[in-house]
Amino acid sequence: MKQDSPQRLTEEKPAAGRSVPVLVPMPAERPYSYAVPGDMCVEPGSIVRVPLGPRQVAGIVWDGECEAIDPRKLRPISHVFDCPPIDADMRRFIDWIAAYTLSPPGMVARMILRAPEAFDPEPWVEGLQATGAGPDRLTAARTRVLELAANGMAWTRSGLSHAAGVSSTVIDGLKAQGVFETVMIPPRPVVAAPDPAYASAELTGDQEEAARMLRDSVAADRFAVTLLDGVTGSGKTEVYFEAVAAALEEGRQVLILLPEIALTQAFLERFQDRFGTKPAEWHSDVAPRKRERVWRQVAEGGVRVVAGARSALFLPFKELGLIVVDEEHDPAYKQEDRVFYNARDMAVVRGHIGGFPVVLASATPSVESRVNASQGRYARAVLHARFAEAALPSIRAVDMRRSPPARGGFLSPMLLSHMRETLERSEQSLLFLNRRGYAPLTLCRVCGHRFQCPSCSSWLVEHRFRGQLQCHHCGHAEKRPEACPECGTLDHLVACGPGVERIAEEVVGQFPDARTIVLSSDILGGVKRLRLELEAIANGEADIVIGTQLVAKGHNFPNMTLVGVVDADLGLANGDPRAAERTFQLLSQVTGRAGRTGKKSLGLLQTFQPDHPVMRAIVSGDAEAFYEREIDERQKAGLPPFGRLAGIIVSAATRAEAEGHARGLRRAAPPANDIHILGPAEAPLALIAGRHRFRLLVQGERAADMQAYLRRLLATGPKIRGSVRVQVDVDPQSFL
DNA sequence: AGCACGCCGACT
DNA sequence: GTCGGCGTGCTC
């Protein structure tokens, strides 16, 4: 059984003349060679089915010559799918990403082969068409059917019976008399064609200027990146819809990338208001059957606009002419398993390869995009003001040293009194705290024992509602004990610090009659329930909302006039070089939830560091100053210039193992590079779940140098067990 | 990535 | 005596 099985020898013909390279969805460093049967036609990009070990997989015929391998190993391609080939741009894109992320090209190819049923054409369905012949006699039911079918349009049997409101036997009867004949109907489009002229946008001032810039960029029909930078409510979406319209007018397809969570019904409806139909959706929630149809119709050019999460970047567009990356700063664009990539950067690369424009939109752009804009590599369009009726909230910092909360509480008297006033005006308050559960740490008052995760040593978070202690890094959960496991003392465990559950407890104590709702990702009932709750809040069915990050995104709450950030400092001191930037972005988004209808509104930041640059920037609304300072600070700290942060992650099971790797890497590293060990807390979930709980982040001065260095390192460096991945935080422009 | 093979612990 | 854990190794 070690050699070719007898079965294989009998079923597959021995290799004929030609063989081609085929990229298989597997972590192989290069394409495999397959024989092309004499009567088969393939070209680079053809999607084929090939035998791979014991199974059949889909692969892509690749470019170039295939390398000479043992002819006895060579097996023939089993089937060529009747499917548009993956075009040369897309193939270059795959090669580029593989090289850039140091991932096997096969794994990148796997990302575009994720709709296996779509490789065969959608079947035509059987339909009925009126022949013009009359029935033997007319009944009321028959008349209704004939009226519908009179224009010669083909109907499906069930479609026609439903539309006419008759039983399908009526249709069968007419068909038997020759009134209808069977015809084949092509597959129904997954969405209607968007009409760029459906509703013209009403744009003013800044918006008009920005829209003109974007339209010009599309008309120029070459690679260019524009950063569309505008505060929440300034009409960014309407502005980039103009770029979408321009691309549609040019007969090009458009991809709009959104963080998964922002891909809401509300967004789809805004699109529909402008273009008369919804875009095709592409994200993890789309049913498999629908996904296949979208994939196929994108490949054939039937779908003109896709709104999708990051994986939509790997759809095989036929004539892509524009990518919009909305909320471009959002960390959700980073994929941190298998192939590590940042969809925002890959979108820029895709645009470069395809020679078309890319729009990056955000109210709080990432620092690297801001740097790219200020250095002239990206154009920048700025929307300064909100729409007339949507006034910006005024924002104040509450100095928690001067205005401390009552003992045992976490809400300052100032925040509580504003909540009371808001309640009296029948308006809504939002309390934001980016921490799930009841308390982030539990300790024993007698012996000082702290509850730690057995597998990743971070503190266990108490979830009082579920009676559990949970690890937020690896998902470990245990029942909350009554007694201290160390000293056995009963009832002396004490919760330290607040989570949203604890804040809710305090709020209910203070405002027992208010309708209070807690929103966090551990809500029972999943995304569906969450959407319902958000709707309910928007409809005014709650007075006080307490929430984590989830409430910061997307949704509009027209009656929300007070936003209180319980711990605005949270996240500022966690060692992440992007901590300040992330906090700034999050606080901007959260405070932006208030005042969307022009009512007087207020944001209060509870902080111990009212003079911190992040707080000052949020309070003054001077984002510009924040960015300038941030760029300056990081340069002074000797951190890599923005947009040129490269790194690799070497994962290890233990700190000792990680330190061993770090020593080996430091010996090989040029002096400009720095190697950090990231603990379990900073490792992505996918890594912690396995045995690789530590990561080494290797940062370098210039991305291109780093790339060369990493290559050398992986080829000649110390033997590294476990997985080696590239951290993709690099400005792709420096590679182009 | 899959999927086989292969070698050591608790059960019908 | 087997079922089943996941450690290694291979796939043109």
UniProtKB/TrEMBL annotation:
**Signal peptide range in chain numbering:** none
Annotated Zn(2+) 2 binding lies at: 453, 456, 471, 474
Q: Where does Zn(2+) 1 bind?
A: 444, 447, 484, 487
SMART domains noted in UniProt: DEXDc, HELICc
Question: Partners and quaternary state?
Answer: Component of the replication restart primosome.
One Pfam family assigned to this protein is PriA_3primeBD
What does this protein need as cofactor? Answer: Zn(2+)
Helicase ATP-binding domain boundaries: 217-383
Species for this entry: Borborobacter arsenicus
Q: Keywords assigned by UniProt? A: ATP-binding, DNA replication, DNA-binding, Helicase, Hydrolase, Isomerase, Metal-binding, Nucleotide-binding, Primosome, Zinc
Give the similarity note. Belongs to the helicase family. PriA subfamily.
Question: What does the UniProt function comment say about this protein?
Answer: Initiates the restart of stalled replication forks, which reloads the replicative helicase on sites other than the origin of replication. Recognizes and binds to abandoned replication forks and remodels them to uncover a helicase loading site. Promotes assembly of the primosome at these replication forks.
This enzyme's EC code(s): 5.6.2.4
Annotated protein name in UniProt? Replication restart protein PriA
Q: Which domain of life is it from?
A: Bacteria
